[in-house]
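Here is one chain, start to finish.
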Amino acid sequence: MLNEQQRSALLRVARGAVEAAAKSMPYAAPSDDPALQEQGAAFVTLRRLGQLRGCIGSVEASQPLIQNVVRMARAAAREDPRFQPIQLPELNDIRIEVSVLGPPRQVTDVDRIEVGVHGLIVQQGTQRGLLLPQVPAEWGWSREEFLDQTCIKAGLAPGAWGHGAEIYAFTAEVFGEEGEAD
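Its structure:
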């Protein structure tokens, strides 16, 4: 678990990385906090006026958490294939959310999946989809709808989770900037 100072630091560096990306400038985040230097996986979600504007992340903890947040924030701002890159005039309307992921664990009993607590990864062959824990809660999905939507995100048929697809669950510590840009 991160404390408030660590959460604030990650939100600050995410904001700095998004702003630098919008200006096409480099950004490096110094931190002397040992917890932020530990290997960590994270997703950074950008919303503009309450609507999704970018979301990119990593599941594997392959670099220090603070560097991962910087990299994912830049990618969410510039590389999410669903959106055009963030432009300078949009910055004041962007709100940032960071999800620090726990390690994924294979699910053998879908009844143990808790909506709003677990994020899911469904994969079959080379197809893989991931939804963060906050997504089904935002949409009011049941466990089965959550599983089906994760299959759809993977490019699989709804219900593939019950027919050979592998399911992994993870938890996430989710926090964001205060206020919603309207």
